[in-house]
Design goal:
Blueprint: E1 2-9, E2 12-13, E3 16-22, E4 32-34, H1 41-53, E5 56-57, E6 63-71, E7 78-86, E8 89-90, E9 99-105, H2 115-126
Parallel strand pairs: 1-7
Antiparallel strand pairs: 1-4, 2-3, 3-9, 5-8, 6-7
Length: about 130
């Protein structure tokens, strides 16, 4: 089995979480991406969020919110292991790089997420962070 190591940013506001949809995808993901060789979680978080959303994450405010494992969306036999972090940021998120659409998603939007996104949405909802 192949395991993809990813880092994600949980940008929460008003009981919703920011989701990103890549070009050609039918599901929303949590912003972030794959670690480059030698990168720490925070290095990856800062780089990926800057690339995808054109905002600067403040690594000094980053807090680990959980690490999750789920099947990769649309990739049989592939598992994603994703460390999720909350963190303050500067700037207004906007779609850039491979991102086609951003949306603020509530728990009622759970079915719009990838399998991993649904798992994290369940966790956030049970913690009272996702309405």
């Amino acid at each position: 089995m192949t395991v993809i190591d990813k880092i994600a940013w949980l940008c929460l506001a008003g009981g919703k979480v920011l989701g990103a949809r890549s070009r050609g995808s039918d599901a929303f993901y949590l912003p972030g991406g794959k670690r480059e060789p030698g990168e720490s979680d925070l290095d990856t978080l800062v780089r990926e969020v800057a690339e995808e959303l054109d905002v600067a994450v403040d690594p000094g405010t980053a807090r680990h919110a959980g690490t999750f494992e789920a099947p990769a969306h649309g990739k049989p036999g592939v598992t994603v292991r994703m460390a999720c972090y909350t963190a303050d940021h500067r700037g207004t998120p906007r779609a850039s790089a491979e991102i086609e659409e951003l949306a603020w998603l509530s728990y009622a939007d759970r079915d719009r997420f990838s399998v991993m996104g649904r798992l994290v949405a369940d966790h956030l909802h049970s913690a009272g962070l996702l309405g």
